[in-house]
Amino acid sequence: MKPMVLSLAPLPAELVKALIMQTPDLPDFDVVSGNEMSREDLAQAFSRADVVMGDYTFKHRVSSDILTGVKAMKLIQQPSVGYQHIDVDACTARRIPVANTPGANTISVAEHTIAWGLSLLRNMYMAQQSMREGRWEQMEIKPAELAGKTWGIIGFGQIGRAVALRLKCFGLARILYSDIVRASDEVEEEYGVQFTTLKGLLGLSDVISLHAPLTDSTVNMIGSDELKALKPTAYLINVARGELVDENALAQALLEGRIAGAAVDVFSEEPVPPDNPLLRLSGQKVLLSPHVAGVSNEAAGRIINMATNNIARVLQGMEPLYVVNKI
């Protein structure tokens, strides 16, 4: 019986198979598209699948109920860095490896972060809106320079380091970072960063970007108390996870002018409902985007290739790469 790959991604099954077949010497296999299946049909498909490719839109949750009939699944491959919609504990209990695509979107997120920092400081949104409304406000826009400022990086993993590396050419006064694990002296020198506590970083930074993972300890790590610690001239950028920031507290801080502005790419609920407090702000420096920091054309190509190459490894009988749980 031919192996079966179940794809939850919104891609044609033929395309998924063609991408997997870029790896030579594969056994014959079928690809079944489950993106439009009901939960009941998906549960039946899961029971037959040898490999599952996850849904990068996070529409389809992989929870314990859908795994009930699984007997010998070899891999659930998520084609993204995030995998919060997958119940990893339930997969581990059934000895199903779960893999993601680490590092594939690092460049994209780092560039997005810096573009937003510059846009906030240069007040580009107000400049564009002013022009579109027929005004010529050279002296009212009041752009600021990044040179001489302090940038704080919360979370010094791959993306945090990529941001620091790209900031080195801007002539910053300093680049601070906060992480649960301090980097070595050699790494700090290589990236031109200084370690500090979260509290210290919040009080000293002109621009703060979030790159921490979502864990029990990082939920709402930026709440009302933390926002009060920021300078009134500071900007906050979140390209990590929406749940890291208390959105109501951030909206209130912006509304009251207690911080200069914010840029948010990720939200506690996605797609964002119309009652999200950040959508109701007007007149404040707030930039919003629909979780696109990591989905440049180039990053999307790297992600899908990493995912399908890993599926090909498993079809060849090899151990998968990038596994996030211990089996």
Verbal overview:
- This protein is an alpha/beta fold.
- The chain folds into 2 domains: 4-104 and 298-315, NAD(P)-binding Rossmann-like Domain (Rossmann fold), CATH 3.40.50; 106-288, NAD(P)-binding Rossmann-like Domain (Rossmann fold, 3-Layer(aba) Sandwich), CATH 3.40.50.
- The chain is 33% helix and 13% strand.
- It has 11 helices and 12 strands.
- The protein has a 7-stranded parallel β-sheet with strand order 8-7-6-9-10-11-12, sandwiched between helices.
- Helix 3 (88-93) links the parallel strand 4 (75-77) and strand 5 (98-99).
- Helix 4 packs across helix 6.
- The chain is elongated and about 70 Å long.
- 38% of the residues are buried.
- The mean pLDDT is 96.
Major beta sheet summary = 7 strands, parallel
Number of helices: 11
In CATH terms, the superfamily of the largest domain is: NAD(P)-binding Rossmann-like Domain
Beta-strand residue fraction? 5-15%
The unreliable regions are none
Name the quaternary structure.
single chain
User: Would you tell me the overall average pLDDT?
Assistant: 96
Helicity, as a percent range: 25-40%
Q: Number of domains in the coordinates? A: 2
CATH topology of the largest domain: Rossmann fold
- Structural class label: alpha/beta
Number of strands: 12
> Any idea what the CATH architecture of the largest domain is?
3-Layer(aba) Sandwich
- CATH class division of the largest domain: Alpha Beta
Structural key phrases:
single chain, alpha/beta, 11 helices, Rossmann fold, 7-stranded parallel β-sheet, 2 domains, 5-stranded parallel β-sheet, 327 residues, 13% strand
